[in-house]
Write a structure and sequence with these properties.
alpha+beta; 3 domains; 5-stranded antiparallel beta sheet; 4-stranded antiparallel beta sheet; 17 helices; 18 strands; elongated
């Protein structure tokens, strides 16, 4: 084939999915296969130090101190925080919550939701960048990786090179540390649902139950996989927050921004060079902002959904600006309006406190106050009343009508309580069983109660009565409604 014929051939790029044909092509055309999917490139985040990095590590220490330390705290004769699913009780320091306290879980979820809305409206993805478990454990795993394999450059060289004894032992040490931390994380998580001292004894005796074994390894390998391998893929593709975050942003939301007007045109130069003389902006094209980014984006291209707002690029850029003798803040937390209109810091903060944020604060404050008041005035016991389904209303000795009820007395206090039961609602209505019942600390007890009324006290049908249960120790009373049946 001569040169003229080669230059006139048509090259048609096509995308072929499995099971489909290429269709008809023009005579003499070549086919070039084009992939519709970008190949995943491993990200090697470079370590960085600075103001935001210190805050990030402070949150790492705080969250892990709470997570790993709380199950070992004691409160009286029990674990301070324990979600005992078997006995259907949640112990949170002095609080003992039953399934009937589900309203408090609803309140916690509402508080969490509005907190997320508030923080996002004020400063973007603060949760993602500083306190999300995925971010926290990725930071810890990256630190262990740096400890065993070195920083970004030696890791890239080692991964690209052949397997050597040095590479083998470094990789082995890294994965050993990762697995140890991941399994300890799974063990600690299960310790919130099974008393952790008991779980520890069972672990040392190799006698853990199948349920505990499954969840320890499940959460352990989930931590190992997410923080060790998937990392930014979780934030970019699995976490829904990355997709709907833009609905909570506006032009007065604080985000990590690049000052394009000041930084462009970018270009390399010596430290002694005058940028104005070279017609260059402040950006020296060092690309450190890209190298330190945990999701591998270039903040100079503007806000992207992959950005988790960690501020690592701002720390890296400020380091370079300091070395070059330039003013810091080329990459910083700011708002779109502040950058475009050149607002001062005080002007920016004033616009952050806009009506939307104040509404979130008001709603959040109201819910938190209501939750606090409700918990502070909460009765230290609960009662559920239901008719005994195995016993119908009947006429007993003396011509009286008897109904049988089952009362569940739940003691939410840390000491035993004695309850006194009374009933009212019909003329001559009396309690025909023992009126005083003792329930041990943080326990519940079912009690069968017989209630009798004269035959002529009420016409046939159902009639409302009330049980009044009082605690001698708490000096409180609780009233529950029930139905008394009079047979025809």
């Amino acid at each position: 084939m001569d040169k003229q014929e080669t230059s006139t051939r048509k090259v048609i790029p096509i995308a072929v999915s499995p099971g489909s044909g290429t269709g008809k092509l023009p005579p003499g055309a070549d086919v070039e296969m084009v992939s519709l999917y970008e190949a995943h490139k491993k990200i090697y985040p470079r370590s960085v130090s600075g103001f935001f990095s210190r805050w990030r590590w402070a949150l790492v220490f705080l969250t892990q101190l709470v997570f790993y330390g709380t199950p070992w705290l004691e409160w009286g004769q029990r674990q301070a925080v324990l979600f005992d699913l078997t006995s259907r009780r949640f112990y949170i320091f002095k609080l003992v919550l039953y399934p009937q306290d589900f309203i408090y879980l609803t309140g916690i979820l509402v508080i969490a939701a509005f907190s997320l809305f508030l923080f996002t409206a004020v400063a973007g993805r603060l949760w993602c960048g500083y306190a999300c478990p995925q971010t926290v454990y990725t930071e810890i795993f990256l630190w262990l990786e740096k400890l065993t394999e070195g920083d970004r450059a030696p890791r890239i060289r080692r991964d690209a090179g052949p397997w050597t004894l040095d590479k083998l032992w470094r990789k082995s040490a890294k994965h050993f540390l990762w697995l140890s931390l991941a399994l300890w994380t799974g063990f600690t998580f299960v310790g919130y649902f099974t008393p952790i001292h008991e779980l520890g004894r069972e672990f040392l005796q190799m006698n853990m139950g199948s349920w505990e074994n499954f969840w320890v390894f499940f959460y352990g390998f989930a931590t190992y996989g997410n923080a060790g391998f998937m990392r930014e893929q979780v934030c970019k593709h699995m976490c829904p927050y990355a997709r709907f975050q833009s609905a909570m942003f506006d032009k007065d939301t604080l985000i990590v921004t690049y000052d394009k007007e000041r930084g462009e045109p970018r270009g390399a130069r010596s430290k002694k060079a005058d940028p104005a003389a070279l017609n260059l902006g402040a950006c020296v094209s060092c690309d450190l902002c890209v190298q330190v980014c945990p999701t591998g984006i270039d903040i100079r291209n503007g806000l992207q959904y992959e950005c988790i707002g960690c501020g690592a690029c701002a720390d890296a850029c400020d380091t370079i600006m300091d070395k070059m003798g330039y003013a810091p803040g080329l990459v910083k937390y700011s708002t779109e309006n502040a950058v475009n209109q050149h607002w001062t810091q005080s002007q920016t903060l004033r616009h952050v406190l806009r009506p939307r944020v104040l509404i979130y604060v008001a709603i959040l404050g109201t819910v938190v106050t209501a939750m606090t008041v409700s918990l502070a005035t909460r009765l230290p016991f609960k009662v559920d009343v239901e008719r005994d389904r195995g016993s119908l209303a009947q006429i007993v000795q003396g011509g009286r009508i008897e109904n049988v009820y089952r009362l569940q007395l739940m003691n939410a206090a840390e000491n035993a309580q004695q309850f006194h039961i009374e009933v009212e609602g019909l003329p001559g209505l009396v309690l025909a069983s023992e009126p005083d019942v003792t329930v041990q600390a943080t326990q519940s007890r079912w009690v069968a109660v017989r209630v009798q009324a004269p035959f002529e006290a009420a016409p046939p049908g159902s009639h409302t009565i009330h049980f009044e249960i009082s605690s001698k120790e708490a000096d409180r009373k609780l009233e529950e409604k029930a139905v008394f049946l009079v047979p025809r």
